[in-house]
Amino acid sequence: MIELYQKEECPFCQKVRQKLQELELDYVNRISVKGTEQREIMVKLGGEHKVPFLVDQSKGVMMYESDDIVDYLEREYGSGDAQE
């Protein structure tokens, strides 16, 4: 399962959502705003208060930074080279 901790208005989060949609990946959208339980969970998992934050449970990957996340998604789920 892929989880994306994000904010709707964040352009960096939009970039990640667009890549997830382009690759037709199912994911759980976690809105992470100050004062919410989602934000607390994200900080416990990743240690930072920033978004986007991706959790790919099937591969044991957790990461920040939209460009890194997009590169990861393309590498793991893109052209079919890395798909199982």
Write a concise synopsis of the structure shown.
With 84 residues, the protein is of the alpha+beta class. It has helices at residues 11-22, 37-46, 66-77, and strands at residues 2-6, 28-31, 53-56, 61-64. A four-stranded mixed beta sheet has the order 2-1-3-4, sandwiched between helices.
Task: Please tag this protein with its features.
alpha+beta, 4-stranded mixed beta sheet, 3 helices, 84 residues, Glutaredoxin, 20% strand
Overview of this structure, please?
α1 packs parallel to α3. The protein is globular and about 40 Å long. β1 (2-6), α1 and β2 form a beta-alpha-beta unit. It has a single domain, classed as Glutaredoxin. The longest helix has 12 residues, at 11-22. The model has no long low-confidence stretch (mean pLDDT 93). The protein contains 3 helices and 4 strands. The chain is of the alpha+beta class and 84 residues long. It has a 4-stranded mixed beta sheet with strand order 2-1-3-4, with helices on both faces. It has helices at residues 11-22, 37-46, 66-77; strands at residues 2-6, 28-31, 53-56, 61-64.
